[in-house]
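Title: Prediction job returns without error message
Component: structure pipeline
Severity: low
Priority: P3
Assignee: unassigned

Description:
Job completed but the reporter wants confirmation the result is attached to the right record. Sequence as submitted:
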Amino acid sequence: MKARVILKGLALMLSLALFGYLFQTSDLGNSINETWIDARVRGHGINGTLLFLLMGGLFTAIGLPRQIIAFLGGYAFGVGLGTLLGALAALLGGMLSFFYARFLGQGLLRARLGERAGRFDRFIHDHPFSMTVLIRLLPVGSNLLTNLAAGISSIRPTYFFAGTLLGYLPQSLVFALVGSGVLIAPALKLALAIGLFLVSGALGAYLYRHFRHGQSLDAKIDAALEETDIAQP
């Protein structure tokens, strides 16, 4: 991975850590607590959980970062449940984008994303589930554009959604850890989260290079991962 890819991910993580500090210590943070997480989610049982999933799904469906939802999931529910609910909320958002593209927006999107959808089709053709997991592990690329391109591709929804959920879990864990109130020294917690992020990104990059066999998901992703145009053996 190029340095700019790593720095982009770390910058997001550090900004969320700062947001978490403000979230708990400043007047702005108290206002946010009262108006959404504390007032409507935390301590509200199944209704709060369903509201979190609904709002998180809508949030990610329009292209806002799924990592923020995982962060808020960690804050509201703790690391374990926050990781799962953050990933499920992002999955719901992905489903909304996917089905919009497949059933409502094909005419518009094929003109804009047809080439990208074709590359996506070729990339996942032989192993749709495992290649979707691989795509989700990568710390680069647009989550929304991937969902839309998949929607106008030939991939079966079950493969795409199952692979998406599994691939979302590592980064969801990272950002839920940053957002949680787990009793670990803040510096140690942040260092652990950064370490997990780097491991997840490195695994995704390694698998991408190893299994793509000359196929390209996106030229920008290839460039970010320092790929060449020469087919791999």
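Comment from assignee: result matches the submitted record. Residues 3-224 form one domain.
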